[in-house]
């Protein structure tokens, strides 16, 4: 019997965080990754477990959820400039000054992250198989591609959002490893400044939204783009008679209040 290979769209879904609740989930994912797992940020600065900074006021936030378990696994934000300044410009200077038009039609991709807990979720198409076992060969194959698959799903959602909202270009400020994978997947990047030291070596690049949309990667998968988190909340309210549905890990319960 021939089995269709698992897909991102079959296993995951991307949401635009358009409510305070959704943004809190986004900040909690960042706290897990940047404070707990990687130690890039000081936990003491975020006693509420929400990793935030001044750029969030200028950002559009995205989330990735595992369909079968409901676990939130990844995040990304699009940062709009603050008074003709992008976050990466705090750490390096572009070869050429950015134009006024550029600041009005570009964003910086920032806080792209996937929680370590995602390793439990191989690309599976049924609920009964959603939790993979590390000793399984197919799991090992899936895990090698899982982080990148989630990253491409977030990229696709952010690209569609950008095209719909008059955003022509992206800036990314990334490590050599991430730049390698982005370039390998056929995304044309133009280096716009020298590499600098910020949590390791990072280099600024510029990408065209239209060129990203033309990548053949999107012909294979990632066709669902994104949903609004508020639509998810409305669906839950209808399904549970207006009562509040809360989630703790992979377990959900309906409050009686």
Summarize the structure in words.
This protein has 257 residues and is an alpha+beta fold. The protein has a single domain, classed as Gcn5-related N-acetyltransferase (GNAT) (Aminopeptidase). Helices cover 33% and strands 23% of the residues. The protein has eight helices and eleven strands. It has helices at residues 8-11, 20-37, 100-105, 137-164, 176-184, 209-213, 217-220, 229-239; strands spanning 12-16, 59-66, 72-79, 106-114, 169-174, 190-191, 196-197, 201-208, 227-228, 245-248, 251-254. The strands form two sheets. Strands 1, 2, 3, 4, 5, 6, 7, 8 and 9 form a nine-stranded mixed beta sheet that branches. Strand 2 and strand 3 (72-79) form a beta hairpin. Residues 123-141 and 244-257 have low confidence and may be disordered. Keywords: Acyltransferase, Transferase. This is PEP-CTERM/exosortase system-associated acyltransferase. GO terms for molecular function: acyltransferase activity. InterPro entries: Acyl_CoA_acyltransferase, PEP-CTERM/exosrtase_acylTfrase. Pfam families: Acetyltransf_5.
Write a brief structural summary.
This protein is α+β, with helices and mostly antiparallel strands. Helices cover 33% and strands 23% of the residues. The protein starts with 7 loop residues before the first helix and ends with a strand.
């Amino acid at each position: 019997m021939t089995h269709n290979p698992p897909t991102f769209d079959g296993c995951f879904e991307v949401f635009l965080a358009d409510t305070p609740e959704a943004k809190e989930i986004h900040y909690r994912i960042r706290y897990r990754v940047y404070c707990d797992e990687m130690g890039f940020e000081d936990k003491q600065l975020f006693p509420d477990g929400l990793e935030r900074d001044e750029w969030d006021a200028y950002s559009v936030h995205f989330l990735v959820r595992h369909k079968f378990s409901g676990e939130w696994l990844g995040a990304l934000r699009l940062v709009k400039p603050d008074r003709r300044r992008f976050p990466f410009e705090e750490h390096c200077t572009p070869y050429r000054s950015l134009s006024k038009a550029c600041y009005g039609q570009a964003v910086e991709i920032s806080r792209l992250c996937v929680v370590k807990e995602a390793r439990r979720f191989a690309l599976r198409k049924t609920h009964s198989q959603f939790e993979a076992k590390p000793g399984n060969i197919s799991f090992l194959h899936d895990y090698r591609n899982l982080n990148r698959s989630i990253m491409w799903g977030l990229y696709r959602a952010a690209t569609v959002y950008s095209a719909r909202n008059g955003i022509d270009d992206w800036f990314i400020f990334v490590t050599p490893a991430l730049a390698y994978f982005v370039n390998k997947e056929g995304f044309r990047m133009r280096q716009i400044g020298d590499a600098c030291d910020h949590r390791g070596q990072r280099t600024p690049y510029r990408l065209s939204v239209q060129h990203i949309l033309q990548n053949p990667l999107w012909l294979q998968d990632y066709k669902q783009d994104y949903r609004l988190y508020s639509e998810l909340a409305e669906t839950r309210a209808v399904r549970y008679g207006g009562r509040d549905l809360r989630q703790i890990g992979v377990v959900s319960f309906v409050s009686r209040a």
